[in-house]
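Morning F.,

Quick status update on the modeling queue. The single chain you submitted on Monday has been processed. Sequence for confirmation:
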Amino acid sequence: MKEICYKTRGVCAREIHVTVEDGIITSCAFIGGCHGNTQGVAALVTGMKVADAIAKLEGIDCRGKGTSCPDQLTKALKEAE
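Structure tokens below.
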């Protein structure tokens, strides 16, 4: 099991806490950000394979920032690989 506390860059959420076990996301929580949206993303990726989550979320842009909370999650997940 690997637990990651990822400090985000360029988005409203300040941190992402994610736990990965055997290539599966077992928990995910965003600190800060748009609560409803980040809660939704966290619920959707829990139980998902890390590689699948990265494939679906990487590169999503929020208002021209060049990144987003889901994109930042992919950066955190890459640390778990």
